[in-house]
Amino acid sequence: MSRQDRFTPASAEDWLDDIAEALKAYGGAAHRSLVIDRVQIVRGRRGETWAEEAARAVQEAFERHRDGRGRGLFRLPFGEGSHRWALDQGAV
Three-class SS string for 62-76? Predict the structure, then answer.
């Protein structure tokens, strides 16, 4: 596998649709570990390589776009420190 075929942290924004789709599959909210696992499964079905950095990139993409940040797609329904992620009302 060439270096180009592997995940790079710069591609973190590419994860937004996968996060949203995973949350929709769980009814709009789920524990972050379930979301990350589902994204990994979906990406694996597409033949993409999963790297340890990918889980961090998924979390980073979520953080950049939650609670009015960035595109405001996601939120923490149980507040700061919670590991339960949800789609923002405007993203549903």
Answer: HHHCECCCCCCCEEC
- Global pTM value: 0.79
Q: What are phi and psi of 82, to 5 degrees?
A: -75, 150
User: Per residue in 60-88, pLDDT tens?
Assistant: 889 888 876 656 789 999 998 999 999 98
Q: Could you tell me the sign of the dihedral formed by the alpha carbons of 36, 38, 42, 44, in that order? A: positive
Tell me the C-alpha distance between 57 and 62, whole Å. 8
Ranges of H-type helices in the chain: 16-25, 32-45, 52-64
Q: What is the pLDDT of residues 14-61, one digit of tens each?
A: 889 999 999 999 999 999 999 999 999 998 888 888 887 888 889 988
Q: Using CB atoms within 10 A of its CB, is residue 9 exposed (0-12), middle (13-18) or buried (19+)?
A: exposed
Scan for tokens 């009814």, then name that residue.
27
